[in-house]
Amino acid sequence: MAKARRIYKRKKTVQNIRAFTKTMELVATSRFKKVHARVAAARPYTDRLSRLVGDIIARSRPGRMHHALLAEPPEGLKSDVLLLLTSDRGLCGSYNFSVLRIGMERMRQLEGAG
Known about the structure:
single chain, 2 domains, 114 residues, mainly alpha
């Protein structure tokens, strides 16, 4: 009889966990939709800004505009940028760990290549 009671309690526990994770999934989906809508709304702005900067660069006379971001790098200078994006919300520790692990591996590869 104790075994049946134990199985029943375990079944209830699993059902509670399922309900909780379903709620978490709904909340995450709602947040994702909000963020996606904001990104989609900002896209025309960023596209127009990119075209504007491109036009400024194309129309500028050589030697008149001096800015570090617009200058060609010196010959032989090569730099790599490794950007890692992690999260600071929710239960994302394993995601952050995986991103950092892969990033560290890639950094070692880049350092090994010079």
